[in-house]
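Below is the record:
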Amino acid sequence: MVHRPTMDEVRPVADAFLTASADEASPEDAVALALRLGGGTREGQAHVNLMLVHLFADILERECPTQWRTLWGVPDVAKINALAEEPDPVERYARQKANAGRPVSTADVKARVTNAVNADVLARKFLQVRRQQPERLGEFSAAAEGATGIMVDLVWGALWIACGKVRERAGKPTTD
């Protein structure tokens, strides 16, 4: 039987990601913690990923200032994640990979950046459905993943980045 971690077990993973974000450090420890908690199974990891989506969504809903919300009161993840970005994220990502000894093609990097932008939009839509039609959340998540190919980990990644930026601008501590 697959162990399904509780929110209390997953919360330290979210805290580790937010701490790495605040320290501008690599989130490798948080990734390792998430993988361990998932138990090495696809189902376990999917469960952890889904819980991370909800944890980061809770934080963003609670802490996002009004000026970074849509007309419906939902945090505008795409707008938040665009704050203070370098003008060319493709070049920056390619440079980081090359410096790490893992060069990638420009096409691969552009595809990754496109997925990140799509994840920002999907994360905002997720927050909107979560707020306005919570009973349709499961249906929305399945349809969105099937239609866009955007995986749950990219959505929680978009929410994590937005949480870090909101906290950075507000001068809040990184963990709850």
